[in-house]
Write a structure and sequence with these properties.
Layout lengths: L7 H7 L42 H13 L4 E5 L2 H12 L5 E5 L4 H10 L6 E5 L4 H7 L4 E7 L11 H10 L3 E5 L4 H4 L9 E5 L13 E5 L1 H9 L1 H5 L5 H12 L1 H20 L4 E5 L9 H7 L6 E6 L3 H10 L4 E2 L9 E4 L6 H7 L6 E4 L5 H12 L9
Parallel strand pairs: 2-3, 2-4, 4-5, 5-6, 10-11
Antiparallel strand pairs: 1-7, 6-7, 8-9, 9-12, 11-12
Helix pairs in contact: 1-2, 2-10
Bound molecules: pyridoxal-5'-phosphate.
The site of pyridoxal-5'-phosphate has 12 residues, from helix 3.
Length: 390
Amino acid sequence: MKKYPMYADDICTHTSDDYEKHLGAVITPLFQNSLFIQKKGESYGSGEFLYSRMSNPTVEVAEKKLAELEKGEKSLCFSSGMGAISSGILSSIGHGAHVICVRNVYGPTRSFLEVFCKRFGIETTFVPGLEVQDFEKAIRPNTKLIYLESPTTFLFWLQDIEKVCQLAKANNLLTMIDNTWATPLYQNPIEMGVDIVMHTASKYLGGHSDIVAGALISGEERMNKIQEEERAWLGNTIDPHTAWLMTRGMRTLPVRMEKHQQQGIAIAEYLENHPRVQQVFFPGLKSHPQQDLINKQLKGFSGLLSFIPAGTDEQILEFVDSLKWFQTGCSWGGFESLVIPIGFGMDAETEERLGVPHGLVRISVGLENLYTLLEDLDQALAKLPLAKKR
Ligand SMILES: Cc1ncc(COP(=O)(O)O)c(C=O)c1O
């Protein structure tokens, strides 16, 4: 058996196995304890583990797998994706700093920057991010961080990660990216120069819609600092049981992602060719306008995509309600197919500011049978008028 696994499937299945240490148990047991007592006579903190807010053997299994998958030195897990995002951002900035963030970013990330960080004198400029110049033009003397989400998870626009990182390095700025859509299997931003990679494990990493968790991956020095400062002080460490479930999810990540990808592509192509659909947004489509960047950055695709059906608001919302297998829900990346109407109930100015077109519907393609899902879409789309293709 190889000592250091090289392939993602080997990392997902076997990194951190330690049969000898754990009485031959085939998986690392669940250490559901807050405290690790110290040996009498030994100094405080001299043991391998001390207190589960700082570190825990069950949590370390998930962290080691993620660090290897993302080709980073060290990973830390958090109680949610937002826990990871807020800790990563706060570790990169100080009072009076300026952040540049991609406009289409996940809503609560935007609010964290726009509302929470603003209370502490931090300003953020949101840029479209399609051109590297968008970031360059926004740089100020007090800029500290460029925050990316590529692809974005409403319209699936990519940012040129390598070029943005070169710009950041030339200006002494840090870069952080939300890599959740691609998973560590299909995109490795550290190899492209990114300083901090973030995942919400509530999506594909967990994969079973039974946990809320998050993770950061970066260099050892930065991660040690976050472990001792942001994660320890904000107290947003992952719970061992959640980490145990996360590891269980990660063991099957490669096989699940293969099916999410296959079905995502098949459904995106079906929707693109459907006469009652105006436009489809998905990096796995040959019609996506950023083919060069897709080939450069992505090694595969997941199953989250969006589209604009034909019809009035009422007709589109009725279409969403008439889907039988796609349950309506805001999350994604689980075993189950989901649908969410996104581009509704906003005024034109908000749609423009957030970069969300009117009538946008997002689906997370799950692991059900492909023909079951296609039939479901077929019966629901049949009620809509014919589309003017965009
Ligand atoms: C793209 C993206 N990033 C981050 C998050 C936040 O993750 P969590 O819900 O685990 O805090 C989400 C949640 O939906 C998301 O969709």
